[in-house]
Write a structure and sequence with these properties.
Metallo-beta-lactamase, Chain A; 6-stranded mixed sheet; Rhodanese-like_dom_sf; Oxidized Rhodanese, domain 1; 29% helix; alpha/beta; 23 strands; 461 residues; 3 domains; POD-like_MBL-fold; metal-binding; Rhodanese-like domain-containing protein
């Protein structure tokens, strides 16, 4: 007999969810499931477990919750959600309060109210039956490796929530045994916390010693740190929070992508009702694409940038690298709430090219060409503010990628403009945004900031 803890890592949004069970009882719980829930069902089957409980640590803002989808697909699991902090839901949940206990054979999960990231936030202690101390705690978005949950996402009461987060860390987490393992719901790269560490788990003792939040023992200093270090808030977070509180739609399957012939694709494109997304890599997009396409590459980061930039009520028309990518792309879009698709072009850009249809291009410049171009080109760094502040190309101007539609007017649309980011993914998306904004000559730099540094070229702070 054994305790089973499976961690599911969702790249792009850097989300961590968990399946916990005991094979002596044959039941399992899932904590903070993502929208594409097959992974939990497959893990339960592999471990010969029945998913009986689904726990939400809080009302999520960064992804579409899979709790309703998983409950429907499993057939018998109940959704357990916090009713602390006056939390309200538009669907049926089994309300959970601080101290509630759940039995999974030799594992007992105990809910602990840990507000600060949100008012209703719960963490779940895991203990062996008969033991009075937990061996692990599933911290949700309250405590991360090297960080803690940001308290500013509600748009109100940020000071109050930051103060509650102080109490959560020092009056609850700090009093647990140093050896207790923490299992957070996010890893490095998530905007739900500042500078989250690369490791996927830690211990209470390690975090007390090294986590910057635990070093801010003065409440006012802690609040200033918690509010002053938060990364930019993705525009889709407030929409996600509303959808998750009301209850995401249950699909029963992945969002379906229709395969379209060239003629059907052209007809759909000509209606102007869909947004055209080209999911090929940056160099392929630069080498030839359909006019008006946005280049959101087929990596897990698509989930994030679709959320930042797309309207969930507008149908999506896709150009894929290969038709076999359709299911994977469907998953990436679903995770931030995109389920409306006009379809994808069968055969991809090759079908368009063979028909002799027009193409647009994004020229490339090497790092050495950019270094010698003087003022001939407007060099635009589209990385986050913290990336920009850590070092940038001396002649560059900063324009954070999501702000391009509203702030690009400060650049000259008639002069050549070159975009760069860390490696090129965001730079190509930025270039496609600038083209849609009427810029006539937009270029990118292969390798972007990584290539610039590798070449040993000068940098500025």
């Amino acid at each position: 007999m054994s305790v089973i803890i499976e961690r599911i890592q969702t790249e792009g949004i850097a989300e961590l969810s968990y399946l916990i069970g005991d094979d002596s009882r044959g039941t399992a719980a899932v904590i903070d499931p993502r929208a594409d829930v097959d992974v939990y069902i497959d893990l339960a089957r592999k471990n010969e477990l029945c998913i009986s409980h689904i726990f939400e640590t809080h009302i999520h803002a960064d992804l579409i919750s899979g709790a309703r989808e998983l409950a429907a697909r499993s057939g018998s699991a109940k959704i357990h959600a916090s009713i602390e902090g006056d939390a309200d839901y538009g669907f049926d949940v089994a309300g959970v309060r601080d101290g509630d206990r759940f039995d999974f054979g030799d594992v007992i999960l105990t809910a602990r109210h840990t507000p600060g990231h949100t008012p209703e936030h719960l963490s779940y202690e895991a203990a062996e039956k008969g033991k009075d101390r937990p061996f692990a705690v599933f911290t949700g978005d309250s405590l991360f490796v090297n960080s803690a949950g940001r308290p500013d996402l509600l748009g109100k009461d940020a000071d109050k929530l930051a103060s509650q987060l102080y109490d959560t860390l020092f009056d609850y987490f700090a009093k647990l045994d140093d050896g207790v393992i923490i299992h957070p719901s996010h890893g490095a790269g998530s905007p739900c916390g500042a500078a989250i560490g690369d490791r996927l788990e830690s211990t209470i003792g390690y975090e007390k010693r090294f986590n910057p939040y635990f070093q801010k023992t003065d409440r006012d200093e802690f609040i200033e740190h918690a509010l002053g270090t938060a990364p930019p808030e993705p525009t889709y977070y407030k929409r996600m929070k509303k959808v998750n509180a009301e209850g995401p739609e249950v699909l029963g399957h992945l969002p379906r992508l229709r395969a379209l012939t060239l003629e059907d694709f052209k007809q759909e494109l000509e209606t102007g009702k869909s947004i055209l997304i080209d999911t090929r890599d940056a160099l392929a997009f630069g080498g030839g694409h359909m006019e008006g396409a946005l280049n959101i590459g087929a990596s897990p980061m698509l989930t994030v940038w679709a959320g930042w930039l797309l309207d969930p009520d507008q149908d999506i028309l896709l150009v894929l690298s290969k038709d076999a990518d359709a299911e994977t792309l469907s998953r990436y879009f679903q995770r931030s709430g995109y389920t409306r698709f006009a379809g994808y072009l069968v055969g991809g850009i090759a079908s368009w090219e063979k028909a002799g249809l027009p193409l647009s291009f994004v020229p490339q410049m090497t790092v050495h060409e950019v270094d010698s171009c003087s003022d001939d080109v407007q060099v635009i760094d589209v990385r986050s503010p913290s990336e920009w502040e850590s070092g940038h190309i001396p002649c560059a101007n900063h324009l954070f990628l999501p702000e391009i539609p509203e702030k690009c007017a400060r650049f000259d649309r008639e002069r050549p403009a070159l975009t760069y980011c860390a490696s090129g993914y965001r730079a190509s998306l930025a270039a496609s945004l600038l083209l849609k904004q009427g810029f006539t000559d937009v270029r990118t730099m292969p390798g972007s900031w990584s290539a610039w540094q590798s070449a040993g070229l000068p940098t500025s702070l």
